[in-house]
Amino acid sequence: MASKFLNDHIIIDFAKLSTGDRNEINEMQKEFETHGWCFIQLPMENDSLGTVQKTLSTFFSQSPQEKLPYKSSNAFGYTCVDHKEGIKLLTDQYGIKSDRRPLLTDDVEQSLQHLNTLFNDWMNILTFIILKMIEKTNEELTVLSPFNMLDIANYFNERIGSMEQPAVGLNTNEVNCVPHYDPGLFSLSILSTCDGLQLQDRNDNKWIDGPNNSQSDQRNNIGVIWLGEAISVLTEDRFKTGIHRVVYPKKNNQARLTIWQEVCTNAQVDSLLENDDTPLVLPENTQIQIANQPNSEPLIISARNETLNTVMKRVENERGLSMSKVGVEHLTIRFPTTKKKPSSNSFFSTLLKWRH
């Protein structure tokens, strides 16, 4: 059977991967070595995800006041910032790690359990194939967490994108989420209800539109796999990081619901689970460069008594990236020449790179 394509990029067939089809595995590996991502045809019935989508959309359509009791005080569960809201969970082979967050409505919790079952089946197969590709020892793979991270995001999209998309996209004035690569091994995205996701074609240095599952020709469960920093490190950059971003849609007030799961690193999960109450105060005019945001500008500390915790929240509001995708190990802090770096024994400070 001839290969299928989306936006001039091959669509890998999950059914063939799961049977060990060598040609299909080689095609996927080629995409990983060239771009760090690939489109994938998933073997799922439309009705299954359609029910989940309807349940989640109904929950998100409630007023902020109605959703207030469900709002989490940490990184997990339901959270909301200026331009989007979402649900973030840790999962493993036993199910959803449900502590540290308020439970959501019964129908949403059932949908989350259903998603976890679907992802568990797919991720086990994909992880097995991908780890076999990179041929690493168990000791080398200890950087990987036993937890995966399930992300559900609902972008409000209260503005439309410009006719000519920005070459990069430096902040949420230009794009919904700035170009970046994730910290983990890889992610599998299974739903995007309108245009927005774009992936970088490294050969032509251009942005490729991801699947829009509301379009009639893309409803047949086309997803995306993008690789993270961990696999690039393990393969010494033989497998590229999948650089992606989210732009504003062509139509105004068209919310975008999207669902994906990431195979995480221990450092990535630990930084979220660690309850770091020690405020690391940064002096005015400190510059913070974020390594996993290619072509980004430094974040400037302009307010007095701004802490690293508030900076990480600024990154999500101003650049669209949650803390789970911007590990503190990616931060390089450059202090003003007249200032000394603050003294702190906090979890964050032990991971940071200090510059004068």
UniProtKB/TrEMBL annotation:
This is Isopenicillin N synthase-like Fe(2+) 2OG dioxygenase domain-containing protein. Residues 164-258 form the Isopenicillin N synthase-like Fe(2+) 2OG dioxygenase domain. InterPro entries: IPNS-like_FE2OG_OXY, IPNS-like_sf, Iron_ascorbate_oxido_reductase. It holds the Pfam family 2OG-FeII_Oxy. Gene3D superfamilies: B-lactam Antibiotic, Isopenicillin N Synthase, Chain.
